[in-house]
Amino acid sequence: MPCGLDADLVAGRSGAAPPKLTPCHPARRWPRSAPGRRPDSMNGPPAPPHGDRALATQRIPVLLITGFLGSGKTTMLNHLMRDSVDTRIGVIVNDFGSINIDAMAVAGQVDSMIPIENGCLCCAADASEMDEMLDRLTDPELRIDVVVIEASGLAEPQSMIRTLLSSGNERIRYGGLVEVVDAAEFASTRDRHPELDRHVRDADLIVLNKTDRVGEEERQRVLDTVAEIAPGLPVLTAEHGRVDPGLLFDHEPRDTPEERFRQLSFADVCTDEHDDHSRHLHAAYESVEFTSAEPLDPRRFMEFVDARPAGLYRLKGFVHFAGADPQRKYGLHAVGAYLRFQPVPWERGEPRTTQLVMIGTGIDADTLTKRLTDCVATGPDAGEADERHMMGVLRYVDDAD
Ligand SMILES: Nc1nc2c(ncn2[C@@H]2O[C@H](COP(=O)(O)OP(=O)(O)OP(=O)(O)O)[C@@H](O)[C@H]2O)c(=O)[nH]1
Predict the structure, then answer these.
(1) Atom 9, ligand 1: which residue's CA is nearest?
(2) What is the per-residue pLDDT across 187-201, written as a single tens digit (0 to 9) for each?
(3) Model pTM score
(4) Domains of the chain by range and CATH?
(5) Quick one: angle between helices 298-306 and 365-373, nearest 10?
(6) ipTM reported for the complex, 2 dp
(7) If 118 and its partner were Cys, which of 98, 149, 187, 278 is the partner (CB 3.0–4.6 Å)?
């Protein structure tokens, strides 16, 4: 078992072996229909013959992490960074919305990070934007060992791969695509978004996360479904994104050409089908941001949260409750019906603001903004809420926090 991977973490169909450690030659996956855009670095010397790892191993692997909204990408990324003390990781974090909550959650743990806000990386008009970011992260002075790109929860994996493969940066190589799947939400998300199957098929590795939220039977059901969608695709089961970083960073695609292209054929890569952004998941979603320098009233805010519209699938950010807990901001994560607050101390000099991002379908920005504005603490007692007022919030704080 390579990479010291715990055997019972791997759940591939037919006892499928985890990815083999063979060099990856990005040029081989280059879309043949777009030779004009093929970068010189990849046109350059012919791909090293199979077995010659020199060129490939000098390149910095770029790992893509995708997964539907709230599946646990940022959680996994943070775990990877905590557990990879000997590896210098450069991160590109793409959040859906102009307040990059994910970047805030990752900042401070990483060697170098570039946040991308208010857009979807998979819709980068051309590869130059990605190239610019990769150029910055692969500057030899930074001595980055691996670049990890956390896509937004609505990104289209095939478009991400295409953008990456069209990079002119000769210091990188494609490092694989990890799709994070929320074990508790997979079935219902798939009902709403059958295109998730394609995302699973595009992956080199599935991380079946949040297995603590499902029983054994449901866990097995999801594993069976994944195996049906993409037979033989390795699956790691995880809680709170705790996977062996060695597996992800050393990951390289399969050995034989058939296997190498199994999830993403040349035809898939060449087709412009998935560049029709109206078909991307995020085309159906809207994102609303809310910022307030005034503290929020915890009771009013909980009324808002408890009565949030059904179409509001994802709610995340930080809340400033002021007098109720002046030392701490409250990280908020809601995914569907799931809700959790995590109190964290304010940094020294950090502006005391509430920053929220709401993502959903059929949500009305004006109504949401108005309802949140109504939560702003007003009057002479503004910001003076005490612990009793925090009861509703504290119900959703884990004991460990
Ligand atoms: N119970 C449980 N909660 C988890 C697990 N992994 C992550 N979470 C929680 O799920 C919520 C969403 O996790 P994130 O890591 O922010 O998810 P994400 O995929 O980055 O979210 P987006 O960027 O919005 O797509 C957070 O509250 C996490 O603490 C897990 O394995 N079990």
Answers:
(1) 72
(2) 999 998 898 999 999
(3) 0.63
(4) 2-279 (3.40.50.300), 285-394 (3.30.1220.10)
(5) 150
(6) 0.99
(7) 98
